[in-house]
Amino acid sequence: QKKLEQMMEEEGLKDEEKRIRRSAHAQKETEFLRLKRTRLGLEDFESLKVIGRGAFGEVRLVQKKDTGHVYAMKILRKADMLEKEQVGHIRAERDILVEADSLWVVKMFYSFQDKLNLYLIMEFLPGGDMMTLLMKKDTLTEEETQFYIAETVLAIDSIHQLGFIHRDIKPDNLLLDSKGHVKLSDFGLCTGLKKAHRTEFYRNLNHSLPSDFTFQNMNSKRKAETWKRNRRQLAFSTVGTPDYIAPEVFMQTGYNKLCDWWSLGVIMYEMLIGYPPFCSETPQETYKKVMNWKETLTFPPEVPISDKAKDLILRFCCEWEHRIGASGVEEIKSNPFFEGVDWEHIRERPAAISIEIKSIDDTSNFDEFPESDILKPTVATSNHPETDYKNKDWVFINYTYKRFEGLTARGAIPSYMKAGK
Ligand code: ATP
Ligand code: MG
After folding, report:
1. What are φ and ψ of residue 238, in 5° steps?
2. Protein kinase domain spans which residues (predicted)?
3. In whole angstroms, what is the distance from residue 368 CA to residue 87 CA?
4. Residue 37: Cβ within 10 Å count
5. SS3 assignment, position 329
6. What ligand has the least distance to the C-alpha of 125?
7. Higher model confidence: residue 145 or residue 93?
8. Of the bound ligands, which one is closest to the alpha carbon of residue 123?
9. How many CB atoms lie within 10 A of CB 117?
10. Distance separating alpha carbons of residues 179 and 196, to the nearest angstrom
11. Ligand 1 contacts CB of residue 362 (under 6 A)
12. From the CB of 363, is ligand 1 less than 6 Å away?
């Protein structure tokens, strides 16, 4: 109220205008207080379809019963997370999604919990994820790669500016909106690394050269086929794939935000070549190859790519002391590979690959997932006896969150509804 009065004074508003502003402010306050009182729960949403699966739960397309708005709901099983020591990570995910009010980050509207699960209600991105896109296509063209890498540069920079390091940039976490533009999801790992990727998991491996000779001797076409065949399974496993993680992140010597640019270099390689540079038959072999990148980062001669592209990949994937971006994001933006990119307007201009959406709940850009019983308490409880999590519920305290804007923007048409008209 004080701030408003002061602002109106500074602007020298007339009494009538002041009256209108004051009443608008009061209206907003009423809505805010109403929102604060509402306790959202699972019963306020209708589940339409499973659209994604991860190590700790799944993502569903849902519709809020009263408004008809469509959202993506990420469901995380508490018992699984306690068991796998993921609690700090999920708090981080919620906190970052709340703080990062950016065009480049998936927007979160509400979060709540019940006995069994945590729920994140996010904006639904109908374009699907980059992993699914890469699995559908053999490779991307240099032009398409330029577009996606350029947008991801801006997205990563936007979270760096907030002081976060993502550390788990991979194609599964690059989502596409209704127009085909990039948004970052999945901040589960921003502040901690999946337990499996901490060094203990790989401790018994020496840094000897990789030994999966059958895989190494495949030609690039067979490698790409093998990679794509195993890829989705890797995404669902709790270990996840170490393919995109920078070598310094695995070491105990420390790392900084430059590790995200390494991951982007790996993704760029995968887009152009058809599989990532360190892919192997097992995560352990991949880890060895990442640690030995000086020998293992090579380009197959049978898949030609431009010198500019190759140079940029090698500027992303090198020792962090020499890595591009060390002096700031401008260094990346001015790299010759990005020649012609309109950095200021890239998000408003047409995407490299346009997305076709027939309705607000179109899921044609997602793979098919079988229905699960995650929302059926009887089944879930018998798998995880209550004692598993009952006494630990305090660790999820403060998880609940509401985005005020979700209410005030009620009149606005969400971007996904404008698509495909
Ligand atoms: P982690 O990678 O930490 O294991 P996860 O894989 O369980 O997490 P996400 O990566 O957030 O969870 O989501 C899994 C998949 O669900 C994504 O790859 C994507 O296909 C889909 N998805 C997630 N969030 C959204 C969203 N907001 N809109 C549309 N699809 C989404
Ligand atoms: Mg994921």
Report:
1. -70, -25
2. 45-338
3. 29
4. 7
5. helix
6. 1
7. 145
8. 1
9. 24
10. 35
11. no
12. no
Sign of the CA dihedral with 374 first, then 375, 379, and 380 last: positive
Tell me if 72 sits within 8 A of 177, measured CB to CB. no
Q: Collapse the DSSP code of 92 into the 3-class scheme (helix H, G, I; strand E, B; otherwise coil) and give the result.
A: helix
| Residue stretches of the annotated binding site | 74
Whether the per-residue pLDDT at 182 is higher than 60: the answer is yes
Q: Which of 71, 118, 129 for mutating ligand 1's site (highest number of atoms within 8 Å of CB)?
A: 129
The CA 172 to ligand 2 mean position distance, Å, reads 5
What distance in Å separates the CA atoms of residue 84 and residue 87, rounded to the nearest whole number?
Answer: 8
Residue 360: how many CB atoms within 10 A of its CB? 19
For residues 93 and 120, the answer to whether their CB atoms sit within 8 Å is yes
- The Cα–Cα gap between 244 and 264 comes to 8
* Residue with the two structure tokens 């097992």: 282
Neighbours of ion ligand 2 (CB under 5 A): 54, 172, 186
Does residue 127 contact residue 180 with C-beta atoms inside 8 Å? yes
Angstrom distance (rounded) from CA 416 to CA 360: 6
Binding positions for ATP? 74
Atom of ligand 1 nearest to the CA of 54: 7
CA-closest candidate to residue 399, choices 123, 139, 112: 112
Q: Helix and strand tally (H, E) in the chain? A: 19, 8
Mean pLDDT, the chain, rounded, equals 82
- Give the global pTM: 0.80
Q: Give 146-179 pLDDT, tens digit per residue.
A: 999 999 999 999 988 888 888 889 999 999 999 9
Distance (Å, whole) CA 54 – CA 56: 6
Q: In what order do the strands lie in the sheet with 45-54?
A: 45-54, 57-64, 70-77, 117-123, 108-113, 401-402
CB of 124 shorter than 6 A to ligand 1: yes
Q: Residue 188: CB within 6 Å of ligand 1?
A: yes
Contact 104, 183 (CB under 8 A): yes
Three-point CA angle 142, 272, 165, nearest 5°: 95
Q: Look up residue 33 and give its amino acid.
A: L
- Calculate Rg over the CA atoms of the chain: 23
Alpha-carbon distance of 418 to 412, in angstroms, equals 10
Whole-angstrom CA distances from 217 to 214, 220, 280, 392 are: 5, 9, 11, 50
Instruction: Report the 10 Å Cβ neighbour count for 15.
Output: 8
Active site residue ranges: 168
